[in-house]
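In the current project phase, we have settled on a layout for protein records. A sample record is reproduced below.
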Amino acid sequence: MSPSSSADWRERLREKGYRLTPQRELILEAVETLGHATPDEVLAEVRTHSTAVNASTVYRTLEVLEELDLIRHAHLSDRAPTYHSTSEHEHFHLVCRNCHKVISVDPDVLTLVSERLEADHGFTIDVGHLTVFGTCGDHAATQLGGDR
C-alpha cells in the first residue's frame, strides 16, 4: 500500500469513527496484493502474516472496507463474492465460462450502452459490480470449430 493511500485510508477510518487496527491493515493489504480475491483467499493471505485473524474478522472487515469505498466486490462466479481494491482504475469484469479467466475492462467500453440506459430508463450502471460472462478468445475458436 502506498504511503498516500495508507494516509487516506487512516483518515477515512477516523472520519467514520473506526479505529485503525493491524487486522484491518492486513486485510486491505491482502486484497491489494491478491488483485481479485474471495474472503477465503484473503484469509489465507492474511494468515501468512498473522494467525490471530479469523474468518469472521475478515468478513466484517471486508464489509467495513467496502462501506469506506476502499474495496468493491463483484460476483465473478456462483460462489463467494470477489473483492478488489478501489485504488486500481475503475473497471468491470469479463469471465470466461470455460477457463474462468477474468479480464478487467475499462468502463469507457460501455459508454454507448451507459448513455442509452440513462436516456431510455434513467438508469446508471454500477460499473464496479458489473460482470459479463462468456467465452474468451482462446476458447471461442475451439467452440466454433466444434460446432461445424
